[in-house]
Protein 1
Amino acid sequence: MAAEDTAAGRCLIFSDFAGRFRENQQDSSGSSQEAYPTSPQASPAVKCTQFELRSLPMPSPGVIRKEQTPHIPPTPPPTVPKVSICIPTYNRADILPYAVNSVLAQTYVDFELLICDDASPDHTAEVVAQWDDPRIRYIRHPQNLKRSRNMRAGYEAAVGDYFLKFDDDDALTPEFLAKTVAVLDSQPQVDFVCTDHWVINAHNQRDEAATQANSAKWGKDRLGDGVIADLVTETFEHQSLQVGSTLFRKSCLAAVDFMRFEADGCEDFDLLVRLALAGKVGYFIPERLMEYRFHGGQTSLRQDIHFLSAKLHCLEGYQFDPLHLEQSRQRKMADLKQVLALRLIEKGETQRGRQLLADLKQAGPLSRRAQVGWGLSYLPVALRKLVFQGFRQVRTKDYSERVRNAAG
């Protein structure tokens, strides 16, 4: 999704963005109770006028150190809000309004919304220009910074004590902020609060069966209301929590320096594990207060390889004192190496894929699946791709694939 970084560039910050808007607009009719308007015109009109341009040095390509992080100076609204919400976006002008309008529909209103646009080539800027709400700040990068740096831009610009980041294809239910803020306000020992969530498809429709299957797969359905007893196990072993449905104290994020650039593609998982290892306290609300979307644009061979490589990097860097968690880490690394090797072989990165399988073979016999992958690596790339696609056609589809395939 992201283009390669360049050595220099500028970052445009549109604070309290407005100026090109339509007046006397009305809410669209016919929406279901759980759906939010998909057009910016449904938002209330409040004129705002401030525009700012700031020049910032861009980091050089390669390893990113903390001091190379692009710094986005905050431009707070007249009254500093308690909650900062960040929606990083890239090239999703048509779907972004659903996410933004779900924020504007919150029953809790003391927030700012930062829309961080990673140099989208589509009409995202024109879509954002139609919202006339002083709580919205638009940060647009003229160059693509990659996912993690775009998220970092929102985090750096946020001024609230509480912070939420969720993706541009997801949404919040109207009471998300009211219920999560209430926990942080009343329980100062809690560092962050997470909720369960709905699964929705490309048409904004909630899928009850997929939602139940998702909650069961990740163990959300067995978590009760309250402080999470074993946060390391829940974040690392079960992966029960999700950043997009979590409201954080910004101070706890600062304690672990938020997201790591080297975890790009797997930064949500990595952030939660590092918070748990740092001894932070998490709270779970077993209510579906967020909507997570499955759609066809989320998966590709390139995206799979990027994610698996990032997650393997993260796993290699963790260390656990409990023996059972360390053993789990070793198993997860072996499984990841096998899956990554097969994806690389399918893509045509044959030598890298074979090397991963050779590493696994040194630790013990290869699984039958890995042996098949090794054999396929000797076929021409076009032919091996056909074989891999054939395997996918005959295997059983899980709930996520069903939702994606049914709705595009």
Protein 2
Amino acid sequence: MNKKIVAILAVLWMCATTSSLRGEFETIAGWDEQVFPSYLISTAAMKHTTEVDETTLGDALGAFGVVVTATEDDQPIKVSILCDGFAETSEFVGVLPKEGQSYRVFPKMRYKFEKLSQYRQATPSSVTFRVQLGEDVPEEKTVTITMRSINDCAFTLIDGDNTIDMNFCFAAYVNEQHPFVDKLLREALDIGVIDSFNGYQSDDPNQVIAQVYAIWDLMANRDVRYSSITATAALSRNTHSQHVRLLEETINNTQANCVDGTVLFASVLRKIGIDSALVVTKDHCYLAFWAGKNHEKLYGLETTMMCADTSEEEIPDFYDAAVAEEQRWDYSWGSFVLAMATGTTNLQKELDKKEAEISIIDVATARLNGVLPIPFHSDQEFLAYDFTYSEDEVAEEAGEAMEETEYGEETEEMVAADEGSAATTEEWNTEETEAIASEQGSVEWDEEETPKKRRRAPMQPAANVEWE
């Protein structure tokens, strides 16, 4: 990743004139005068361990700086950067060692990270650069930049004929500490596919797959569907980017493109201790996860297949041992198995190539390298579903079952004996049936109460769902 950072810095520096007249300076402001809050947040704690050119002073990872030429040896310099709202005034004070040499100077920016995380639309902003050489009068320049939305993720930089992979920035949208994640896990346990989330504690790959299915099943209950929204409001000449939903947006709006669904699953899996990775191809993204703590087996999961219509598909029996048949739901099990088979097959095909055309972003490794998650700063509240039974509902269901088994034959005989009726169950007086059931000691049915179901009734699967 450090090699990537060096290449990123090269693009930053190209955004300014590589030399300047003596006593004058050129400005460096992001990439093509566009700044990505997601990049600034995700790399805030990243350590730069690669050797930097001696003509670079200050914060080697900085997005804002100046190019200035020394007019004498050991020339004192003070660089100040003033921003509209998203950072405190930031300064560099030092010395330019050699007369006639151009230097790139990057003050350590004092960003307001909470403010950065709240940019939801591309917004113009003013940045003022002030440079003082020795005792000279400070020179000042103001530029207008485009502050991109926090949802805009830069994934490729263009450097002439070369492209620089920035896919590690997608890991910033994985947020294992998001407050919604715990609530999702609670709902999954309420549904009851599994009794607990224990990561790798069982040392059983099938238990890991069962936990992944429990999350998939919850998303199907919540009706999270594929929605390909990737376009950004602002464009750049040398930066490719796409719109990525934050977790609260995906969860509450029940929509996800390939990246959205992948970072959602990666967030939940990391929370429960299952190692996962983002698999990024030229135009697609899907999840990979390890079924053992020693990373013995890597599976793929095609998240765009959530809630896909699999009624016409033949469902393979690859993972039958992982989840008991009575714990599978027809609406989610078929799509899960096909998503596992599709993702794993595609992943293996790429890994079998001599030169893989994918990036596998191990989230744990990204964290070790200092890539931080974008923090939750939103007034959105968690849209919850109740997947539990109350004690009355359990008793009510038991009563319904008893009525069906014990009084079914008696009810049919009474209907047939009623000469004034058409002998159909539709015309049967339900009040008499309930009275009979009550006399026999069954649980009373309260017609005014709508019983809560363990599973929310799903919408009809969308026709012709496509995934890459």
Protein 3
Amino acid sequence: MDRSLKPSLNLSLTLRYSVALIFILFILFSTYLINMYNFSRAEHDARIINISGMQRMLSQRVALMVTKIAENPNNQKTQPYLEKLEGAQTRMRQNHEELKSRIISESQNSDLYQLYFEDDGIDSQMQHYLGLASDFLKLYKAGDYNAEKAGSLSNEITFIAADGFLQKLDRAVSLYEKQAPGNLQNLRTYEIYFFVLGVLVLISEVLLIFRPMVREIVNKTETLSNRNKELTEFSYRISHDLRAPIRSVLGLVGIMEKANEKGDREKADEAFRKIKPALMNFERLVEDIIKLNKMSVADIPEEEVFIPAVIDESVKAVENILANDKVQIVVNTDIQHSCVMQKLLLRQILENLISNAIKYYDPEKEVSKLEISAHERDKKYIISIIDNGLGIPEDFRHKLFQMFQRFHPQKSFGSGLGLYLVKQSVKALKGDIRYVPRPDGSEFILTFPGKNI
């Protein structure tokens, strides 16, 4: 990338990515807080429903214990009933205070508030009911048991429990249960709101951040591409211009030789003096070409290549990198002659495909195999790479050679550019590559021309 453009582009990308990440973090954090609040509320609702149901059960238990004690006041079994009665009364009072506190703080305009605090509501009946239970317990604790008074208290407690108090407690449970789905609906509503907000934020990021960012990248990429083309053309033009000073120096050397043969020293000295400026001009042109080559990507040169040897080199290189000990690699080739081609591109293709076959082996198979075959047919070279690995899912095969495509991210976390670069390298070789799905793996068939030696 052009050094004059790189800092500004990096800064722009950093700022825009930072803004996008801040928006996303805000949505995630807000969603987390709202969900935690609603989950806490749902948990509290469940507790309140449980407590209100317990009140209904405790009201009947108090009445039952009082009846048992009144029927057998002097029986040795009375003491456990007294303990159970006292425990039920204490727990019932605690539950009532908790429920009453919540209703006062949250539901003053609700049906629950009216049910609890209207004339002869749950609160007044509960205080009276628990008071009677306390008086009943005092008769036994004081040591002056009065059978008539105990019987009167027992009858009154039983009457209250059966005469409408239980129905009011049932009504309270129903109102709490009715309130809980409303809170759950609020949770769902909040989830929908934040989902819509998240979608809107993503759309805004695409329109206001990523689309301008992509546009800027495209524009600067086009600018860089144009500059590289200009540099390339300029380099070629200067390369041709190198011939001029060389020819000039050779011409001056020829003049000197002829002048010396004729004994014309003055003409020889004049030609000699002109050689230095010509060589200095040549040096300047060489320096310019070196600078231009540093600024642009040079074409990969063609060289003599023996394809079986390149395959062996690629296999060894990949094995060393991946420390392969799980995949059996077999190479079959009948190529006998060397050819002229861009060896670097071929190695890049082979190493990429071989490394993929090794990385994406199928661990469920007892034996993982990779077979590489190379043949020459009709002045073209055909290399086939077959493996019994994980293969490519059918839904993704149409994207096989596109950028940033990863088909097994759980197995290996690559950049998603490997097969795209393979495709570009194949194009540079003026060849073709095909993917052939197999029942137990994959096959890539590479075809390209080569100049035989």
